[in-house]
Amino acid sequence: MARTWQGRPVLAGDVEGEAAVSRRGFNTYASFFSSIHVPSGSAVCSDSGNTDLHEIDLAGKILCVPKTTGSTSSGAVWLRLVTLGNAPAAVLFSEHIDPLAAGGLVVSDIWSGRRIVTVDRLGAEFLEAVRSGDHVHVRSDGTVLVAD
Amino acid sequence: MAFAASTLELTSDERAMLEGGRGPVLERIMRTVVGYAEALSAERLVEITGNGHFVITCALPGIAPSMTMLDELVEAGLTTSRPFTLDPLPPLDFDNWFLRPDQMRKLEGMYEAQAVHMERMSSLGLSAPDACTCTPYLPQVGNVPGRGDILAWSESACVAFANSVLGARSNRNGAIMDLLCNIVGRVPLTGLLTDEGRKASRHIEVATGSLPSPQLLGAAIGRHVAADVPLITGLDRWLAPVGERSTLDYLHEMGAAAAASGAVGLYHVHGITPEALDEGEGVLLDEHDTYRVDDQILHGIEAGFPVPWGDVGAAPQKCFVGCPHLSLEQLGWWAEAILVRLDEHDLGRVRVPTTLAAAPGVLRAFEESTASAGRLREAGVRVSPACAMQLFDDDLSAGERIITNSSKLRTYTHARYFRDEEIVRIVVEGRV
Q1: Same domain for B182 and B263?
Q2: What domain range includes position B79?
Q3: d(Cα A40, Cα A83) in Å, to the nearest integer?
Q4: What mean pLDDT is predicted for residues B41-52?
Q5: Are A5 and A126 in contact (CB under 8 A)?
Q6: Are residues B20 and B164 in the same domain?
Q7: What are phi and psi of B101, to 5 degrees?
Q8: B305 to chain A: nearest residue by CA?
Q9: Which residues pair with B269 in a beta bridge?
Q10: What phi and psi values does residue B323 have, to the nearest 5 degrees?
């Protein structure tokens, strides 16, 4: 059995992977500060203020957050991660996507041709239910299935 | 992208750009801006009416567009619809940052494309070769948006200041999207660009015994409200309405800390900022919560900042002040405070090499207007127009014990935070 949530596909796609969950605003720049310089295959969260994700490798993960926070430099971070090959596979927002994340993810999508699947408005209940390590399947219509 | 539920309406000119009528590069840019608008559920784009300010100074992919992307824009003959300023330059003025030879070599490698990057920025519309600072609205720089101007700015501290203190309107646009919106001269009408998006949904009641540190108050506000718009009451006991330099400097520091700790793009301050002055209590939505910030809360925040050194009592090796950049008046305060403290201890030089960062125009005015500049140099304190934060990229300063008065720098790096007065004591005495 899987629990199902319905969101809005911002950058639609079908992807599966392991959840990495932040229940507080995700500070994109602080989290990826150490991951944008050389191709390492990993993106270990460097935000010491994020007790949910600090020191967890976010490359290839299904990142589940309420919204993003922090420096506007993060607009270029997503494109860089995709170029280096260490981006999360998807970003799932419980709230409406914020301008900083929207700009960065859309730029990354159109100027790299490689997609970080993005779904927003999944609701607070989604973020309360999903746990880091859960297996998550994101469908292109914005449906998100979390395996029990 | 094409959302099924998209309600975005485009003008004929915008549609022409989107459909490739003005070239493939502009078509791609317009597709990006339209995708941005659809993601934000905007109903239309609006014309940008003020000059730009962008975060993309450094020739470092991940911080700025790649050179391939910039070349594509320049070769297509594109410019921004209005001139723009940029964030501070990377710290290639090595002497001012007390760098080791290996750090200099690494920086040279990281920024080998910096000169070409700045050429591309000039081609795209940079207002002057040295218009690079995170305080573009200082009189020595002159990028001062008017009240109600529509902007597509980035740099979180600048967006917060332009919105809150100057009454201009900008969302927190990210790097690259800032530039692209300004090339088409349009930005999605949403969020902080709208009247309803500028109303406060959170109330911050400042109940401290004296004017709180702007760095700590900003951190408290950012952590509590994240991206929401707060109305801050209680500060008018100590601060004059906007217009006084000391108020502007205070709000600049507070806003930068709030933006770095959360995602604050706009705040209102009762009795001080323009929309709070005009609208009074009307700026606060009926449905709001109240967070009372007292001295105990701020002390708790300060005590909770991590000490990123193995030995908490170890002597610091460097001190960086000026994140965000200092105003001329702040620079003067730091110079006097350090020199007076040195005199009190009958010392000629600081024990902790210290760098004060400010806009190029501010540094020129400082050098021209005061005798302190020469004394400061002799005392081992340097001034720089660059950005301290870039010294932490790619582990450049790994293992170094660096102190700062900046909550923002502390948030993103391993620099250790101390209050202003403590910083002055530490750099003179050489111990924490």
Answers
A1: no
A2: 12-193
A3: 12
A4: 97
A5: yes
A6: yes
A7: -55, -40
A8: A49
A9: B232
A10: -125, 95
Instruction: Tell me the ipTM for this assembly.
Output: 0.97
**What CATH number should be reported for the domain holding residue A63?**
3.50.30.10
DSSP code per residue over B114-157: HHHHHHHHHHHTBSSTT-B-S-TTSTTT---PPTT-B-----HH
CB contact (8 A) between residue A75 and residue B178: yes
Query: Cα–Cα distance between B361 and B132 in angstroms, integer?
Result: 10
Q: Which long-range contacts (CB under 8 A, 24 or more apart) does A11-14 make?
A: A11/A105, A11/A106, A11/A109, A11/A115, A11/A116, A11/A117, A11/A118, A11/B1, A12/A117, A12/A140, A12/A141, A12/A142, A13/A90, A13/A115, A13/A117, A13/A138, A13/A140, A14/A117, A14/A138, A14/A139, A14/A140
Instruction: Mark whether B382 and B270 lie in a shared domain.
Output: no
Q: B310 falls in which pLDDT band (50, 70, 90)?
A: confident
Residue in B closest to A72 by C-alpha: B174
Number of domains present in the structure of chain A: 1
Contacts A68 to B, Cβ<8 Å:
263
Strands A8-11 and A117-120: antiparallel
Domain span holding position A102 = 2-147
Cβ contact A107–B159 (<8 Å): no
Cross-chain CB nearest to B263 (options A8, A34, A100): A100
CA-based R_g, chain B, Å:
22
pLDDT at residue B188 is higher than 60: yes
Instruction: Note whether B187 and B70 are same-domain residues.
Output: yes
Orientation of helix B295-304 relative to helix B214-225, angle to 10°: 90
Backbone angles phi, psi at B244, to 5 degrees: -75, 135
The model's pTM is 0.94
User: Do B421 and B314 touch, CB atoms closer than 8 A?
Assistant: no
Chain A contact present for B228, CB below 8 A: no
Q: Is the pLDDT of residue B241 over 90?
A: no
B156:A71 CB<8 A? yes
Check if A103 contacts B (Cβ < 8 Å): yes
Would the CB atoms of B227 and A77 count as touching at under 8 Å?
A: no
Residue range B43-70: mean pLDDT, rounded: 92
Q: Are residues B289 and B210 in the same domain?
A: yes
Please indicate whether, in this complex, the C-beta atoms of B262 and A25 are within 8 angstroms of each other: yes
Per the DSSP assignment, residues forming a β-bridge with B356 are B321, B383
* Mean pLDDT within B157-183: 97
Phi and psi, residue B293, nearest 5°: -105, 115
Omega into B324 within 30° of 0, i.e. cis? yes
Q: Name the β-bridge partners of B383.
A: B356
